[in-house]
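Students often ask why inverse folding is considered easier than folding. One informal answer: many sequences map to the same fold, so there is more than one right answer. In these notes we will look at a single instance of the problem. The structure comes first.
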């Protein structure tokens, strides 16, 4: 059975809107695909260890989709495991972006409290794929109206990937439900 791994963003959860939309799409249209959407650990090294362990345990073909920080992780999964990935308004340089969030954090979905510190920024920088060799297996879904991330960073970083750029929108990616079937097709599941 093919598997879709969905990776949520920073301070999010499997209960995020896009994760729920994808799960519902698969239930209705592709019940033959196993959907895996873990609650990702809050800190980078723990998150990557968790994601890599999940990928190691998947039997059969799989693809990955990720939004925001999940897109960062999905790129690393594509590079490390040789699978296809869809990245939605991805964080390209989270080690820079998340410096604005250093200190006490609370995940609004899980109510988890934790500290984000400089050591975590170093972990993110060390985990970044600097020159992805997997861009032929990545599809970038990007909206210019993203209020959290500068969409131009993603366009530059993923310039050799398949790209869908839209005017307007926001960080949540307005209209994602219209892309679910295309995401599945791109992942070849």
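Output (designed amino acids):
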């Amino acid at each position: 059975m093919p598997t879709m791994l969905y990776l949520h963003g920073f301070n999010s959860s499997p209960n995020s809107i896009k994760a729920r939309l994808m799960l519902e799409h698969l239930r209705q249209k592709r019940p033959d695909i196993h959907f895996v959407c873990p609650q990702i650990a809050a800190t980078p090294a723990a998150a990557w260890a968790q994601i890599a362990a999940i990928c190691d345990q998947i039997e059969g073909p799989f693809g990955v989709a990720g939004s925001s920080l999940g897109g960062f992780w999905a790129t690393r999964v594509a590079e490390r495991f040789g699978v296809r990935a869809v990245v939605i308004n991805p964080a390209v340089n989270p080690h820079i972006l998340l410096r604005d969030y250093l200190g006490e954090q609370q995940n609004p979905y899980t109510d988890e409290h934790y500290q984000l510190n400089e050591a975590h920024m170093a972990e993110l920088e060390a985990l970044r794929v600097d020159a992805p060799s997997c861009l032929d297996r990545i599809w970038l879904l990007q909206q210019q109206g993203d209020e959290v991330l500068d969409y131009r960073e993603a366009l530059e970083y993923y310039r050799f990937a398949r790209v869908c750029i839209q005017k307007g929108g926001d960080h949540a990616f307005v209209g994602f439900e219209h892309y679910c079937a295309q995401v599945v097709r791109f992942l070849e599941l």
